[in-house]
Design a protein that fits this description.
The structure is a homodimer. The first copy, chain A, is an alpha+beta fold and about 160 residues long. Helices cover about 15% and strands about 35% of the residues of chain A. The longest helix of chain A is centred in the middle third of the chain and has 24 residues, at about 60-80.
Amino acid sequence: MPTEAFQDSYPDDLSHCFGCGRLNPHGHQIKSYWEGDEAVCRFTPEPYHTAIPGYVYGGLIASLIDCHSTGTASAAARRAAGDGEDPEGAVRFLTASLHVNYLKPTPIETVLEVRAQIKEIKGRKVVIGSRLIADGQVCATGEVVAVQVPEHLMPHR
Amino acid sequence: MPTEAFQDSYPDDLSHCFGCGRLNPHGHQIKSYWEGDEAVCRFTPEPYHTAIPGYVYGGLIASLIDCHSTGTASAAARRAAGDGEDPEGAVRFLTASLHVNYLKPTPIETVLEVRAQIKEIKGRKVVIGSRLIADGQVCATGEVVAVQVPEHLMPHR
């Protein structure tokens, strides 16, 4: 079973994302892993990640769903291609659309778990559905359309 | 013309939001103002608010749209009630759903402007549409359904 997070397989030059870049000390350092066919991210919010007292900021929840989904898209594309096809883990995805439904306020004093499933893979596009769970309750659901980063956006590569 | 940001009119106990709370030193301190019938938020990203090199992190864009929209909902509800009805600015909104379409990558070395319009006000619900502009181009659009915070979520009040 692999123990490296999806995001930690990104090459150095693509590892500065505020959400999930392992080389961004200011960022959230979001990390995702396979658990069977689901991708799972666990995140412990800081006290200052609040919205109103006692609850998690919705923008952080959007960020978790965003980076967890693009990371899952990358891992799914790599898995679909076969690991040997992409030894550098260089497949990086951008978010084309993000939709979050906040079902109930998310308590802040607990570990948040985001569980994602691949809904569609077609060409450079991957659709990912997810749910955010806290204290055993689904507090939010997400859908992300992720698209593989086009080469012209990475002129430094 | 009022010069106080919508978010700066929230009472102290509701001003700790990671996105827009004036009392959260770790947060983004997002601020919104009326310009005619549109609500406008301007934000200068830090270099570490990146996604891939040169572009803004999508989760930050979601956060800008989120707090700008809930702030606009609050200001619109206050305006609809008449300023005298809510002297403390205590009307605070939560996000029920957030939808962001990322139309093109958002350049990071510029001021981001989010312009929002009220699409619907009905009871405790406000729907807000918005667009994020950078270097004169619309890079993302947003739609937020905001709902006035129910009293049972603020037991400290």
